[in-house]
Design goal:
By secondary structure, this protein is an alpha+beta fold. It is 30% helix and 30% strand. The protein has five helices and seven strands.
């Protein structure tokens, strides 16, 4: 299993993974055009030249970034792939000098195991909610906001 920065050729696989879980209402759907536009934010898990997981780190403010679009093929879940993808985003955050990372998730237990802690939505800048407004489930989607501080 290799964790690496995403390439343009990975966009369709990322799109398929993310939207598979969006159809199950486990994450926000993303159009292919958005994935292409933000491909530099993604890291992927690759197994035998196949993308089996993805995650993005989106810079929100001078000291804050979001881990988002975390998706792992069902065959590869419970094997540490999601953890490795999130840790890769943490490493990128550190290189950028960003100390706080948040996630909005329907699966808070996963992030709590990675030392994230629950926060109030009010602690996040209003800019963050720009994406939420486009969501068909806004304002009552049920996502839980969590945060971690990187040393």
């Amino acid at each position: 299993m290799k964790i690496r920065p995403a390439k343009i050729k990975d966009a369709k696989a990322i799109h398929t993974l993310v939207n598979y879980y969006a159809q199950k209402r486990e994450m926000l759907a993303r159009p292919l055009s958005e994935i292409y536009e933000n491909i530099q934010e993604f890291v992927v898990a690759e197994e035998k030249s196949r993308v089996v997981g993805c995650c993005a780190l989106h810079v929100s403010w001078e000291d804050l970034a979001e881990v988002k679009a975390l998706a792992v093929d069902e065959k590869y879940q419970k094997k540490g792939v999601g953890k490795k993808l999130v840790q890769a985003c943490h490493k990128i955050s550190g290189k950028l000098g960003i100390k706080k990372i948040f996630a909005l998730t329907f699966k808070p237990k996963f992030f709590l195991k990675l030392k994230y802690y629950k926060i109030s939505r009010n602690k996040l800048p209003h800019k963050v909610w720009g994406e939420c407004i486009r969501c068909p489930f806004f304002p009552d989607c049920g996502e839980v906001p969590l945060m971690i501080e990187i040393k």
